[in-house]
Fold this sequence. Notes:
Structural class: mainly alpha
Number of helices: 5
Distance between the termini: 90 Å
Strand content: under 5%
Amino acid sequence: MKPKTEQFKRNLCFDSWYIWTLLTHGIGFKESDLKRIIFANKFSTGKVGWTLGYMINQTNYIPAEYREKPLSRNHFTLWLTISIILLSLAVLFLISTIYIFCRTKSPTIGKTKNNYLQPSDQEYA
């Protein structure tokens, strides 16, 4: 046993037991089928790794054809109406807020006829 490969050989027992359990109980292979399994590291087009297998597996979840559903005329009219109502309410609220703000008078206590502030009668401590 070489020192470089010693750390990997310690896990071989666990790895082989895991693969056997996965193949027999997880996937459903029989003992006679296990003798015919061949593991490949390379294809003619390149290397085989877990990333390639994962990518191939995930392609099963992509729909065969994706069609974007257009917005129907009724739905467009509904959304347009709701948007106009909300915009109108916002404008009415803005106008009423400005009207109320302008109607309230600012306090004129302490101002003279020339709009200059008079000194306060309170003493500062």
